[in-house]
Amino acid sequence: MNQYLSELNKLPSKKIESQLRKYATDNKVPIVSESGLFYLLLLIQLLDAKNILEIGTAIAYSTIQMALLRPDILIDTIEKSEEMAKIARDNIKNAKVERQITLIQADALDYNEQDLKENYDLIFIDAAKAQYINFFEKYEKRLRKGGIIVSDNLLFHGLLTTKEKIDSRNLRALIRKIRDYNDWLSKNKKYDTQFLEIGDGMAVSLKK
Ligand code: SAH
Ligand code: MG
């Protein structure tokens, strides 16, 4: 993101944000882009979202920033990797937001969504890219009418629109999956979706 614009923006805690961003960069953890984070926080404020569900916690970078916005925001966040969940737990504790965050260490595809709240205001889908349709269909039942689903990385690091030839078959299959999700989402009549060139491509879907 343009550094000039970035520095004009405020964050709930710039100190924690830059510490965790540095850790993520050094350890190649794919956290949300800076512009994506600003946008996500804005949506939460506009919606006055109090109940948030996140699929894909990683080190809890996005989770902590969302929680720090306001003390009455509650977040349930699902992370498959035991190793990531452990780091996330430490980070959440250090940021003093453990009261607001419930970290569920599970594969979001297997987890029983009936155990979650029924009326989330916002769902942030940011886990395994090949599974986005499955995540969406499974968890959208827990989203209130007028609520929003934000999906991250719809350009898949630019690979979705590159003119270069992609040699790896697995990578080509993954790209196809993401394209299928984007097409499916744009045709989904239960939602009004905007596809935005923010960060690595972000979709904002409003439940009608
Ligand atoms: N939202 C975070 C980044 C998440 S990165 C941020 O912006 O700060 C994606 C994470 O999703 C990884 O940690 C990965 O382990 C997790 N993940 C992948 N597949 C998953 C699944 N099926 N269920 C839960 N978590 C999953
Ligand atoms: Mg992401």
Q: How are the elements arranged and paired?
A:
Layout: H1 3-8, H2 14-26, H3 34-47, E1 51-55, H4 61-69, E2 74-79, H5 82-94, E3 101-105, E4 120-125, H6 132-139, E5 143-152, H7 169-187, E6 191-196, E7 202-207
Parallel strand pairs: 1-2, 1-4, 2-3, 4-5
Antiparallel strand pairs: 5-7, 6-7
3D structure, described in words:
By secondary structure, the protein is α/β, with parallel strands linked by helices. The chain has one domain: 3-Layer(aba) Sandwich (Rossmann fold), CATH 3.40.50.150. Helices cover 39% and strands 21% of the residues. The protein has seven helices and seven strands. It has helices spanning 3-8, 14-26, 34-47, 61-69, 82-94, 132-139, 169-187, and strands at 51-55, 74-79, 101-105, 120-125, 143-152, 191-196, 202-207. A hairpin with a 5-residue loop joins strand 6 (191-196) and strand 7. Helix 3 packs parallel to helix 4 (61-69). The longest helix is centred in the last third of the chain and has 19 residues, at 169-187. The mean pLDDT is 97.
